[in-house]
Design goal:
Layout (H helix, E strand, L loop, with lengths): L1 E9 L5 E9 L38 E5 L1 H6 L1 H4 L7 E4 H10 L1 H11 L6 E4 L17 H23 L6 E5 L3 H9 L3 E3 L1 H6 L31 H10 L3 E7 L6 E5 L7 E4 L1 H4 L7 E6 L42 E9 L4 E7 L8 E6 L7 E4 L3 H4 L2 E9 L8 E10 L3 H11 L9 H5 L10 H6 L1 E2 L6 E4 L8 E7 L5 E8 L10 H9 L3 E2 L4 E2 L4 H7 L7 E11 L5 E12 L2 E4 H9 L6 H22 L10 E5 L6 E6 L4 H24 L5 E4 L9 H9 L9 H10 L8 H10 L6 E4 L28 H13 L12 H33 L4 E11 L3 E6 L4 E6 L2 E2 L2 E2 L6 E3 L4 E4 L2 E3 L4 E9 L7 E8 L48
Parallel strand pairs: 3-4, 3-6, 4-5, 6-7, 10-12, 18-25, 19-26
Antiparallel strand pairs: 1-2, 8-9, 8-11, 9-10, 11-12, 13-14, 13-16, 14-15, 16-17, 20-21, 21-24, 22-23, 24-25, 27-28, 29-30, 31-32, 31-39, 32-33, 34-35, 36-37, 37-38, 39-40
Length: about 950
């Protein structure tokens, strides 16, 4: 059976064409009920239970649930609960969900794919008895609601036809009051989600997961201005009265943020609760610019929202911001509308309401860029000690905080598994188990190189190849060799694991690797991009085992000049898997003269020449605080913290990895100028360097940033004999001036923008770590096509698809770095749980009410507040801030950036919900503010200590020399 829709369409040239759309209908679409004698259900499809378990007091008969679109969009957390089973999802609803929210659609598909959940997709759009054409003047939403009611009527009739005595019901779940009224008039069973969940037996926890706006209706005074409608925003942007951009909340001040808009080169300042107007970090917003006379300077105070009571009547006035026009004022605006919400699920803790019996509480997110969230829960007594997940539902004008609902608990606060789960969820790290389909595509052990592979590849098993990696490394993706040729030159080879032999384009494994994009390294665990059988076994270039590789081989002279370069797939057998320390000992031990020692010495000699040449060309040598935890083998808790030491062998490996990446980049860009995957590092704008220039100038040094070469030279000259850590501090600040290095497709960017600023390289890519980076897999496929070792496929040469892939790679790479830093912070808390120590530190920044310090021994940064914190004033001596010199002074003591100080580190565990790493000033000593050195403390009457919370500022990721293999191996 088929229906036709005929309409006339006007072409661009003014002609009229007739368009006919055919819609095919069937009478054999299965209902999905397992016991139905009228339908023939394919064995591959999940069926509904013949007699669903009765779980609802208001609906005592066995029944199936039928959902409308908004229930799925707004109640997905409830639907993901294991208690919700035997659900009919209409194709009408499924299509609308896919159109309106791809993210929710993906979550729904995951639930539908679980056979135990009994979610059945009924193709009502192609059933002759459930399809309804759109009525004249009828909206798409009204037609969809009518389709749902029609499907429910058909199911009721169909069940009776199969078994007249059946008591099975179909209940429509909808929060649309009008839809419920119309369904009831037709004699259908219908309920709102809140009412249905409220009468469920044995599942009281589900009440907290329901999104219900009626619970939060409040007639109190309006706090925020109303948001413009979509039409008003569109009209305002078209007229140039409004601008759009992404909103980024300030980490230091919860009443401040900025918007990045293409209309302005610099970020646009948003200041004050009303001007922020309910925007949440990441939202795409519409802003109205203030006249230049009303532009302001970013606040120089650190302001934390510390309200603990969910009381909207307890109004606290915003602090006064500086309103006087200044020369350094920045563009300032107010948010007038929300174009797109970027809300997600948030991890954090519950700040319980002190009112006995109250069900309304404040949720405090782990991410300080996110405001507190009002939720209603009856489980506060249990959740008060838990890390929990909460979702935002909406943010009304009368509420200082957004409204949300409880999703799930992760575990007890402070437990490592729960805290690790928070890190992974907060940074959107895919870390689920591998699907059955992926497992079916993996090779089976024992595995051996197939005979035909030897014929396809260059056999390098007899060459002295070895790997050099951190201790404990299991994902060894690169190995090296060097040997003298008969003509006197040197052959150097970089051999990279051939991961693409095992991961074919378009497979489930390939799609999952592309989604994950990178391996994530936490202090005590690793989230692999590919399954362990590949990452730690078959693709790991372990010593003494045959492995498939992709080799980049150069012929170099003794001055490290490249004579010739070749690429080929190979079979290798590494002679040794060495650590950096082991390789260094072999190089330094003159008594060792075997082939491995000779190879390493040649590599080390050439690497030093390559590094000098790069630095002479303007490559930057930057710094960032890096530490290493020694972990207890039984408890897995940190027992020691040491700063990472860099040996010559670290640099040796890095230099040849960089050289291989550059050589491969040149090759694939030459062969595929429109679709090569490359990596660039943009030159930072001058404004980024201002904090560095000011800090250096106060110390008597000039930092010139006109070019990378001048910056590198300026940093080399900025040395203070009396402060050996000064130059390192400058390089740390320089790292924070850098832009993010990103992947891109060659055909989408101008040739002059390929430049990698940190490495001073005209072109660059990632080739050397395909076990842990999906970008390298794409580069391997491109290079294989270049040398005829493999063929291309459509997606590989599709610029649009590749550009979208780059966006995901850049995002995942950034999140992986942030999660690694968060893991370090977690283990730092664990390390200091029962420790207190006085350590040497240096001041990094001096602010209006605080100064930020760094402790080189541990790579830790913290904030010491001097005049106030949040909305509370602190007692003690008065500090005076000099904005001109950016200094704090008190009792004839003046604090400058880069000054050495002594601080005390300890963990404040008085609040079990939010432990804090405490930084206290020891020296220079200020009466009433500093604490006495531990050596002088009388243990019988310990000094009361002040608590200050760590404020971390981490550098962006750039492919600098020091960081080219940062975080590559298991810690």
């Amino acid at each position: 059976m088929l229906t036709n829709r005929v309409f006339m369409k006007k072409t661009r040239k003014g002609g009229i064409i007739k368009v006919v759309r055919e819609h095919y209908l069937r009478d054999d679409v299965a209902c999905g009920i397992g016991s139905c004698g009228l339908c023939s259900l394919p064995s591959t499809r999940t069926s509904l239970d013949p007699k669903p378990e009765q779980l609802n007091e208001s609906f005592p008969l066995p029944h199936y649930l039928m959902l409308d679109t908004n229930v799925i969009l707004y109640q997905i957390d409830f639907l993901e609960s294991e208690a919700v089973r035997n659900v009919i999802v209409l194709s009408t609803v499924l299509d609308e969900v896919k159109h309106r929210s791809p993210k929710i659609f993906k979550r729904l598909r995951k639930v539908i794919a679980d056979p135990g959940r009994k979610f059945y997709t009924f193709v009502n759009e192609h059933h002759k008895d459930t399809y309804l054409s759109k009525g004249i003047g009828e909206s798409a939403n009204d037609r969809n609601d009518r389709m749902i009611r029609q499907a429910a009527l058909w199911y009721g009739k169909h069940i009776k036809e199969d078994n007249p005595k059946s008591k099975l019901q179909v209940i429509i779940l909808t929060d649309d009051a009008e839809n419920r009224t119309k369904a009831s008039a037709l004699g259908l069973a219908v309920s709102s989600v809140a009412n249905y969940v409220g009468s469920m037996k044995n599942h009281p926890e589900l009440k907290d997961k329901v999104f219900n706006t009626e619970k939060w209706q409040d007639d109190s005074k309006i706090i925020f201005p109303s948001h413009m409608t979509a039409a008003q925003i569109h009209d305002g942007i078209k007229k140039g009265e409004l601008h759009q951009g992404s909103f980024f909340a300030s980490r230091d001040n919860f009443l401040e943020g900025n918007v990045r808009s293409e209309a302005y080169e610099e970020p646009i300042l948003i200041q004050g609760r009303l001007n922020l107007n309910r925007a949440v970090d990441g939202d795409v917003v519409a802003i109205r610019m203030f006249p230049k006379s009303e532009w302001k300077c970013p606040s120089k105070i650190v302001l934390v929202d510390e309200q603990n009571v969910d009381d909207e009547t307890a109004e606290v006035a915003d602090p006064e911001f500086e309103n006087d026009p200044k020369d350094d004022a920045v563009p300032t605006a107010a948010i007038v509308g929300i174009i797109k919400r970027k809300w997600r699920q948030y991890c954090g803790i519950l700040a319980a309401n002190p009112l006995a019996g109250s069900t309304r509480h404040l949720f405090v997110p782990s991410d300080r860029n996110i405001p507190r969230i009002r939720i209603e829960t009856r489980q506060s007594a249990h959740l008060i000690t838990q890390r929990i997940v909460v979702a935002i539902d909406y943010w009304p004008r009368h509420s200082k905080y957004p409204i949300g609902h409880f999703v799930r608990a992760l575990g007890n606060i402070g437990e490592k598994d729960a805290e690790n789960e928070v890190i992974l969820l907060e940074h959107d790290i895919p870390h689920g188990s591998w699907s059955a389909e992926i497992k079916s595509q993996l090779p089976v052990l024992p595995w051996h190189v197939e005979p035909e592979e030897y014929k396809k590849r260059v056999d390098l098993r007899d060459i002295t190849i070895c790997s050099v990696d951190p201790p404990g490394c299991t994902d060894i993706d690169d190995a090296l060799h060097a040997r003298r040729l008969d003509n006197g030159n040197i052959e150097v080879g970089v051999h990279i694991a051939d991961v693409t032999h095992f991961i074919k384009p378009g497979t489930a494994l390939d799609k999952e690797a592309a989604l994950r994009a990178t391996t994530v390294y936490l202090v005590d665990k690793r989230i692999d991009m590919v399954p362990d059988i590949l990452s730690s076994n078959l693709c790991s270039l372990r010593g003494g085992e045959e492995r498939l590789a992709f080799s980049c081989v150069w012929e170099l002279d003794d001055n490290a000049n490249i004579i010739h370069t070749k690429f080929h797939k190979s079979v290798i057998k590494s002679k040794a898997a060495l650590t950096y320390q082991e390789a260094q000992l072999i190089i330094d031990d003159a008594s060792q003269t075997n082939q491995t020692a000779q190879s390493l010495r040649l590599l080390n000699k050439l690497a030093k020449l390559l590094k000098k040449r790069r630095i002479d060309n303007g490559a930057l040598v930057l710094a960032s605080p890096e530490i290493r935890f020694n972990i207890d083998s039984e408890t897995h808790d940190p027992i020691d913290v040491v700063a990472k030491k860099m040996l010559d062998t670290n640099s040796m490996v890095e230099e040849f990895m960089l050289l291989a990446n550059v050589s491969v980049a040149e090759k694939i860009e030459h062969e595929f100028p429109e679709c090569a995957m490359l990596r660039r590092h943009p030159c930072p704008p001058d404004a980024n360097f201002e904090p560095l220039k000011k800090a250096a100038s106060y110390q008597g040094f000039e930092i010139i940033t006109d070019s990378g070469k001048q910056l590198a030279t300026s940093l080399d000259l900025a040395v203070k004999p009396d402060n050996p850590y000064f130059n390192t501090l400058l390089r740390i600040l320089t790292t924070r001036c850098m832009m993010q290095a990103v992947y891109f497709i060659s055909g989408t960017t101008q040739r002059q923008e390929y430049f990698h600023y940190g490495l001073a390289s005209p072109i660059y890519t990632h080739f050397t770590s395909p076990i842990r980076r999906y970008a390298d897999i794409i580069v391997h496929r491109l290079l294989a096509a270049c040398i005829g070792a493999d063929s291309t496929y459509p997606a590989l040469l599709d610029k649009t698809a590749s550009a979208q892939l780059c966006n995901n790679l850049n995002y995942r790479n950034r999140m992986a770095q942030y999660s690694g830093r968060a893991s370090v912070a977690l283990h730092t808390h664990l390390f200091f749980r029962n420790r207190t120590s006085d350590e040497e530190a240096y001041i990094l920044f001096v602010k209006k009410n605080a100064f930020q310090v760094i402790v080189p021994k541990y790579g830790l940064e913290g904030t010491i507040y001097v005049s106030g914190r949040g909305e509370k004033a602190r007692s003690g001596p008065t500090f005076t801030y000099n904005e001109e010199t950016q200094t704090q002074s008190c009792d004839n003591v003046e604090f400058h950036a880069f000054d050495p100080v002594m601080v005390r580190l300890s963990l404040d565990s008085t609040n079990v919900q939010h432990q804090k790493l405490v930084f206290e000033l020891v020296t220079p000593y200020i009466e009433g503010f500093s604490v006495k050195p531990l050596a002088e403390l009388d243990q019988a009457s310990p000094t009361k200590r002040k608590s200050t919370e760590v404020e971390e500022q981490q550098p962006p990721a750039v492919d600098t020399v020091k960081k080219s293999k940062k975080g590559k191996k298991a810690k």
